């Protein structure tokens, strides 16, 4: 799956740079995308992206310093950003170490300056999904799922002993992207994959991601896809 993801990212980066002279990508947190980031940081993929024209953001961040083991920035730095020639000023991280509301405001301002619009139009947003159907830091039952104006909010949610305070893009901000790609692996998520993709809509946060003028992809390994109808 990491290979398939890296191949697609290279193509989308090239298309964005050809069309608009830059490539903006919001990274996913959690552990699943690490293999994809490592692929992207290795040849032949590494040299196929013009990193000087690449801009990296995050879909969500935990309220921890950038060196913390639970920092999404730290994971991306270790697996990808420290290994590719991306200029420091092209790395637009959420300041998880500060006051959460202040970090959300600063990140929203950064998005506004970069995109020049109320909602960011990322070339690509990468997302993971939890076994409860959450994505980014959009958790089941959260009022933020119906947020229509703000691009960035602070939330609090407990999941697998990970930090509960989070700063996250809202569904409306993610859904403004040109391309959104979910990366999901493992049999423990198979039932939720089936419910999200084949069950009634608006039941789980991942279903609230619906690009309005863009494309949506789900990249699954065989185990994660095993309960979808038509899969053997
Ligand atoms: C985070 C996320 C979150 C993550 C899922 C899946 O910061 O925790 O961005 O939405 O993608 O929880 O996490 P795993 O890949 O570790 O299963």
Commentary on this structure:
This protein is of the alpha/beta class. Helices cover 27% and strands 17% of the residues. It contains 6 helices and 8 strands; from the N terminus they run αβαββααβββαβαβ. The chain has helices at residues 2-20, 34-40, 72-79, 100-115, 171-174, 190-198; strands spanning 23-27, 54-58, 60-62, 124-127, 152-156, 165-169, 179-184, 215-220. The chain has a 5-stranded parallel β-sheet. Strands 3-6-5 form a 3-stranded antiparallel β-sheet. Strand 7, helix 6 (190-198) and strand 8 form a beta-alpha-beta unit. Helix 1 (2-20) crosses helix 2. The chain is globular, with a radius of gyration of 16 Å. The two termini are 18 Å apart. The model has no long low-confidence stretch (mean pLDDT 97). It binds 6-phosphogluconic acid. 6-phosphogluconic acid binds next to strand 3.
How are the secondary structure elements laid out?
Layout: H1 2-20, E1 23-27, H2 34-40, E2 54-58, E3 60-62, H3 72-79, H4 100-115, E4 124-127, E5 152-156, E6 165-169, H5 171-174, E7 179-184, H6 190-198, E8 215-220
Parallel strand pairs: 1-2, 1-4, 4-7, 7-8
Antiparallel strand pairs: 3-6, 5-6
């Amino acid at each position: 799956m990491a290979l398939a993801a890296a191949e697609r990212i290279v193509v989308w980066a090239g298309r964005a740079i050809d069309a608009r002279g830059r490539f903006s990508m919001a990274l996913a947190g959690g552990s699943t995308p690490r293999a994809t980031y490592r692929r992207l940081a290795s040849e032949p993929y590494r040299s196929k992206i013009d990193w000087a024209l690449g801009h990296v953001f995050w879909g969500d961040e935990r309220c921890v310093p950038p060196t913390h083991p639970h920092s999404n920035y730290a994971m991306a730095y270790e697996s990808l950003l420290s290994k590719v020639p991306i200029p420091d000023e092209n790395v637009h991280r959420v300041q998880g170490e500060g006051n959460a509301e202040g970090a959300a405001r600063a990140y929203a301002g950064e998005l506004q300056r970069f995109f020049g619009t109320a909602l960011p139009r990322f070339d690509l947003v990468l997302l993971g999904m939890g076994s409860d159907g959450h994505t980014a830091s959009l958790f089941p039952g959260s009022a933020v799922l119906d947020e229509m104006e703000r691009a960035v909010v602070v939330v609090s949610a407990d999941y697998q002993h990970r930090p509960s305070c989070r700063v996250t893009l809202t569904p409306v901000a993610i859904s403004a992207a040109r391309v959104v790609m979910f990366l999901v692996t493992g049999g423990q998520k198979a039932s939720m994959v089936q419910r999200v993709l084949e069950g009634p809509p608006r039941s789980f946060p991942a279903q609230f991601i619906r690009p309005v003028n863009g494309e949506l992809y789900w990249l699954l390994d065989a185990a994660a896809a095993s309960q979808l109808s038509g899969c053997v």
